[in-house]
Amino acid sequence: MTRDQYTFTDPAKLYADIEPKKQEMPEPGLDADLSPRADLGEKSYRGTGRLAGRKALITGGDSGIGAATAIAFAREGADVALSYLPEEEEDAQRIAGILRDAGATVLTLPGDLKDAAYCRDLVASTVEGLGGLDILVNNGGKQIYNEDLTTLSDEQFDHTFKTNVYAMFWITKAAVPHMRAGSTIINTTSVQAYSPSGILVDYASTKATINAFSKALAEQLAPKGIRVNAVAPGPIWTPLQPSDGQPPEKLESFGEQTPLGRMGQPAELAPAYVFLASAESSYVLGETLNVNGGMPTP
Ligand code: NAD
Ligand code: MG
Questions:
Q1: How many other C-beta atoms are found inside a 10 Å radius of the C-beta of residue 70?
Q2: Counting ligands in written order, which one lies closest to the CA of residue 65?
Q3: Of 57, 89, 155, 275, which sits most exposed with the smallest number of CB within 10 A?
Q4: Tens of pLDDT along 145-176?
């Protein structure tokens, strides 16, 4: 029998032999170029009908955590719209193929999250193309390290906030009017919201904002029956990291500071998103689910 996400496994040994290599790629980076390749659950995620008939929109759905989530959603029975940058077409098409193999209707909707018009069109195209929207995953994100505030450009500060915070606001604002009671919104924050690194001042600030946004909106939308939650990943092996998310020399020890002593794989994040998307989490809202290898959080 091949391993799936339910197989009894030692979490300290799982994936422990996957050693990140020192590497650098231009932003946004491609899963196709990642060495070693990340596990998106292509071979392991087994669905059990938990999202049958749902319509989902996932930003950053071409690679990393978003792609692993897309694969899981499709195998749980959802139709999926993927948002990503035009230069990520190769990754997006590979994921779209895996979703279609699972029987999902798939929309590929490239564009720039920094553009409010694209964010609004994304929601309109999803509603039209899938016939509704029940699950919104705001997951696309920008992380570029910077060692000195005096060299952190106004442009980078603006782009990090546009991508990570404004896009979430624009997309969610456009999406909520289409969401019926029972729908769910899941935002990707980070352990950086609680334990910010000195080289990620702009990024960590956006992730703390995402937590507060999610909790406030959860309270506001609860009476409408729309639940808002967040997932806070720790160090996960995705193209975000070698495309200037970290200094290249830090990649080789990426994740070793966690109690499990290793980095996580996108496949280990997907079940958290499935749980928060599905009706089994009906009494869970305003929550941040930490998936970080054991680092303490408030
Ligand atoms: P990733 O590079 O695979 O995904 C990020 C995606 O964001 C890209 O694929 C891209 O499609 C999208 N994106 C970035 N800028 C965009 C723009 N201007 N317009 C449209 N799309 C844009 O990396 P990932 O690590 O899977 O990132 C997913 C989320 O997880 C991000 O929000 C990231 O901050 C968060 N996160 C990652 C880690 C980690 O260690 N990898 C840890 C904590 C949080
Ligand atoms: Mg990508």
A1: 34
A2: 1
A3: 155
A4: 999 999 999 999 999 999 999 999 999 999 99
